[in-house]
Amino acid sequence: MSGDMLVVGRVNAGKTSICLRLARHLGLRELAWVVERTDGVRERRRMPMSEANALLSSEEEHRTRALQTLLLSVPKGKGEHVVRIADSAGLTEGLHADETVRRAMGQTLRALVAAKGVLHVVDAAAVGRALTLSQTAPFHTLDEQMVAIGRTKAQYLILANKMDLPLAKDGYRWLMEHCGPIRVLPVSAREGSGFHEVKRYVWRLA
Ligand SMILES: Nc1nc2c(ncn2[C@@H]2O[C@H](COP(=O)(O)OP(=O)(O)OP(=O)(O)O)[C@@H](O)[C@H]2O)c(=O)[nH]1
Ligand SMILES: [Mg+2]
Questions:
Q1: How does residue 1 score in pLDDT terms, banded at 50, 70 and 90?
Q2: How confident is the model at residue 60 (pLDDT cuts 50, 70, 90)?
Q3: Which of 15, 33, 69, 196 shows a CA-CA span of 20 to 30 A to 111?
């Protein structure tokens, strides 16, 4: 299953947090996921929202190691429609030492090519820090390539995440200038800001 919208981005950008926040914002009490493991096995999982934060509990990067599609029931007319939001393993440059991570990144890239709609999550605070503190390039080739692929999709939205952190505003401003005319939406998965807009965007797809 490729999902109606694919959530992609650099590792640690906050993709899973955004999916969970969206589910919470929609008032879901339970999460229904379809996990596509990289060995080809597909598993259905359900968990109460109260336990969902366990998905974020690891301290390591590369927390998400398989495509996990969240099924969101959205009221439409007299019935309900299901919107599928596929959370993916984060991307990094180079060849990762761990084979599981390499396979997961390959799975993300295949899903990215196939997806009709993409939500590209960027850590706006990291962009801001790169700009002001280290004066290094805030966007690397990897991000540029994700934007280049994203532009070709029917739906493509950049989510500037972690807006609650220092320097994220600078990062957001830079993203808007650099990526325009693509729409860049400022959000904080931690605090929930910007999720009315995300919900509206996802709602339209139902
Ligand atoms: N301050 C702040 N931290 C956030 C926000 N969103 C996510 N984080 C933190 O950023 C870290 C990475 O979040 P994840 O949601 O696991 O990121 P991911 O993009 O799914 O990461 P991978 O699956 O490893 O690629 C976690 O420690 C989160 O708590 C945010 O809006 N603000
Ligand atoms: Mg994740």
A1: very low
A2: confident
A3: 196
Q: Any alpha helices (H) in the chain, and if so which ranges? A: 15-25, 99-114, 124-129, 141-150, 168-179, 195-205
Closest by CA position to 108, among listed 206, 205, 13: 13
Within a 13 Å sphere around the CA of 84, how many CA atoms are in the beta-carbon half? 15
The closest-lying atom of ligand 1 relative to the alpha carbon of residue 12 is 21
**Residue 73 to residue 135: CA distance in whole angstroms:** 44
**Nearest ligand to the CA atom of 17:** 1
List residues near ligand 1 (CB under 6 A). 9, 11-17, 56, 61-64, 90, 161-162, 164-165, 188-190
Whose C-alpha lies nearest to ligand 1, atom 21?
12
End-to-end alpha carbon distance in the chain:
17
Is the pLDDT at 58 greater than 80, yes or no? Answer: no
Among all bound ligands, the one having the nearest atom to the CA of 13 is 1
Atom number of ligand 1 nearest to Cα 19: 15
| Residue the block writes with tokens 């002001």 | 132
Instruction: For the chain, list the domains and their CATH numbers.
Output: 5-205 (3.40.50.300)
The preferred substitution site among 6, 12, 129 for testing ligand 1, maximizing ligand atoms within 8 Å of CB, is: 12
- Tell me the CA–centroid distance for residue 188 and ligand 1, in Å: 10
The pLDDT tens digits of the residues spanning 116-173 come to: 999 999 999 999 999 988 877 888 889 999 999 999 999 999 999 999 999 999 999 9
